[in-house]
Structures are given as structure tokens and as C-alpha cells.
Design goal:
10-stranded mixed β-sheet; Alpha-Beta Plaits; PsdUridine_synth_cat_dom_sf; two-stranded antiparallel sheet; elongated; alpha+beta; 12 helices; Pus10-like; 14 strands
Length: 370
């Protein structure tokens, strides 16, 4: 029939009999120079067979193999569809929202996450069993993701539909955006494995743009000359040496990482009685992996140079609020009005809520890195 679409399926069969484990181990020992190749697992078998020639295989094992010594039982038979991949970009408009479920010491923190606000509707439309969430990096719980948004990917397990049409993904995008104003998605579409590899490859190459509200303490107030000096340093090449930040020592390897600041713009904000001209907005572009918070406050000397060191004259800087305003990665590859949509997003002032009360969010939620 012309209206029927074929769907590729995967059939997984698992057989067992009494001596299968010992025979598998014996086979791997014969084939692997490493004494077993990792044991009777898929990875162990792949490692053992990776460099074995047909001649070596025949010399080590009988071909065909001997019949099973006992009854063979079918343990599991599963039919599933190949993975489906859905990609897009998300904007996080809230400073109290983690990217993925936040579990700390066995306890749930915060009621939901970016992943949980996006995934269920997509899983439901694809009639999938479940989904795993991946993205091009992640922002801290107290950092907004603005501009075009951050590229993300959902891997859908065992979807019961063959594909998602453009009309379906458009309606799905509208549904997600109407459900909760903390997260908005755009460029939602079905992608393939090649697109997934492009997202993974771009993670280490992407450039990120930030807007931060900062306060200078100690030394003289910030001047236009200071702003020009910083812009010149970034233009000539500014490399940071960042030891693993204190806030992530519990989960990151201790190392010193070099990252470049590609551009740096400092804009003093109008003085008021409380701050005497010490508030300023910082806009910067960095290589992937740069720790912007630590660049601003120095992290007890673990980031060199820090912003305060570059300004000189005894100045120290504190970061009050931070936004990611762009992730410069062309993914997913979309046409049409994508560029216009991105420009419209960037016209909005990312610091509008900072000017009203810079400390409002920080009073209720400490800076936490996920």
C-alpha cells in the first residue's frame, strides 16, 4: 500500500545454557593477548576480536563450534524500534532552575528542571518508552540562558512512530512554550545520528557569550580608560590559567586549564548613592570551558589573571548575576527565519531585571554549580 511507511526494527534475543559463561571466557582467553579481553561482556568480546585475523580465529577455535552440551533456553526476546533523535535549542528564563534533576545527598532540590519541562511532551508524541537528555554544555542553576538558546538533544528509546513531521514539531514546540514560562524552546526538529555527532564534536569548539552584573570593591571606581584597557587586552590575546574551581573540586579532576577570553567589554553603570559608581556590566566571549565566575572574583587566586588583577590599583570584583547570551554553535542546522529569530531575542536587554534589584536572586539562592 502506498500509504504505509516501513519502520526498521531491532530484534534482541538472549539465549542461555549451563556452560555458556565458562565457554565464553575460554574463547576470549584464546583470542585475547590481554588474558581475557575484559571478560564475557560485549565490550570484552569487541576488544578481543578487534585485531584478530580470520586465520588466528580458526587456529584458536573450532569452526564450526561444537554443539551445546545441554539444552539451550531463550531467556529474552525484545523487539524495538531504532532510536529517534529530536534536537533544538532551549532558553532558560529563570534563576532557580537546574538543567537536569538536582539530587543532592539523596534529596531532591527544586521542583523541576529544564529536562523535565521539555522531555515529557516529546516522549508522548513519539510514543517512546523514555528519553535521555544531552546538551552543548550546561549553565549553573542561577544563570539564565538567553539569546538563541542552548543546543539540546533527546534520544528517544523505542518510539512507536516512524517520524515527526514539521507540523507536529511546530505544534509540539508551541505546547512546550505555553506550558511553563521558565523554559522556551526553538528550532525543534527531528535529527539523525550524523547531527548528533556534530553536536558532540562542537562541544569543545563552541564559543560562549556572557553578560554579567559585577561590583568593584577596593581601589578607585571604574573609568572609561579602564574599559578601553580591558578591551585592548582581550583583542591582543588574553589567556587564563584556571585551577579547578573550589566549587567543583568534589567532582572535577584537579588540573590547571588554559582558556582564552576572545573579547571583553566593560560598561560602568550610572552611579547611585548605594554603590557610588562601582556597578558595571561585563560582556565577554570565551572559549568553551572557561569559568567566568572565577575569572571575575579570582577564586582565592586559583584563576590568574582575574578581572581585579587586570583592572589593578587594588581593585577586587564580585559577580552578582550572570547570563549566557549566546552559544555560537550552528546546531541544529535550520534555515528560514532562524537568524531573524535569534536577532529578535538578542534585542531584549539581558540585564533588565538586574537593574531593579541586583541582589534579589542571590538572597534566596546561593551560587551553585551543577
Amino acid at each position: 500500500r502506498g500509504d504505509v511507511e516501513t519502520i526498521p526494527l531491532q530484534l534482541a534475543l538472549e539465549f542461555r545454557y549451563a556452560d555458556d559463561a565458562s565457554e565464553s571466557d575460554d574463547c576470549l582467553r584464546r583470542l585475547s593477548s590481554g588474558g581475557g579481553g575484559g571478560g564475557s561482556t560485549r565490550h570484552g568480546a569487541a576488544s578481543a576480536l578487534a585485531s584478530v585475523s580470520a586465520e588466528a580465529f580458526k587456529a584458536a577455535l573450532p569452526c564450526p563450534p561444537a554443539p551445546a552440551s545441554g539444552p539451550v533456553k531463550l531467556i529474552v526476546a525484545e523487539v524495538s524500534k531504532e532510536l529517534m533523535f529530536v534536537g533544538g535549542r532551549y532558553r532558560k528564563l529563570c534563576r532557580r532552575l537546574p538543567q537536569t534533576p538536582w539530587i543532592l545527598d539523596g534529596e531532591r532540590r527544586m521542583d523541576t528542571s529544564v529536562e523535565e519541562l521539555i522531555s515529557p511532551a516529546i516522549v508522548r508524541l513519539a510514543k517512546a518508552d523514555s528519553a535521555s537528555f544531552a546538551s552543548a554544555g550546561r549553565e549553573d542553576v542561577d544563570v539564565r540562558m538567553l539569546g538563541r538558546g542552548r543546543p539540546f538533544l533527546l534520544r528517544l528509546l523505542n518510539p512507536r512512530v516512524a517520524r515527526l513531521t514539521a507540523a507536529e514539531t511546530a505544534a509540539l514546540q508551541a505546547e512546550i512554550n505555553a506550558a511553563d514560562d521558565r523554559v522556551q524552546v526553538s528550532h525543534l526538529c527531528q535529527v539523525n545520528r550524523a547531527h548528533c555527532e556534530a553536536l558532540r564534536a562542537g562541544e569543545s569548539e563552541k564559543v560562549k557569550c556572557y553578560s554579567a552584573l559585577c561590583r568593584c570593591t577596593g581601589g578607585p571606581p571604574i573609568t572609561a580608560e579602564d574599559a578601553g584597557k580591558l578591551s585592548g587586552l582581550a583583542a591582543s590575546g588574553l589567556v587564563l590559567e584556571q585551577s579547578t574551581p573550589v566549587r567543583v573540586l568534589h567532582r572535577r579532576t584537579v588540573a590547571v586549564r588554559k582558556r582564552r577570553i576572545l573579547s571583553l567589554n566593560l560598561e560602568p553603570l550610572p552611579p547611585d548613592a548605594a554603590d557610588a559608581g562601582r556597578l558595571f556590566r561585563l560582556r565577554l566571549r570565551t572559549e568553551a570551558g572557561a569559568y567566568v565566575k572565577e575569572f571575575v572574583h579570582g577564586d582565592l587566586g586559583r584563576t590568574r589573571p582575574s578581572l581585579g588583577e587586570l583592572l589593578g590599583e587594588g581593585r577586587q570584583c564580585d559577580l552578582l548575576l550572570l547570563d549566557v547570551v549566546d552559544v555560537e554553535l550552528d546546531w541544529p542546522h535550520v534555515g528560514g527565519d532562524a537568524a531573524a529569530e535569534s536577532k529578535a531575542d538578542l534585542k531584549a536587554d539581558p540585564d533588565a531585571d538586574l537593574k531593579a534589584d541586583p541582589d534579589a536572586d542571590l538572597k534566596v539562592d546561593p551560587v551553585v554549580d551543577l
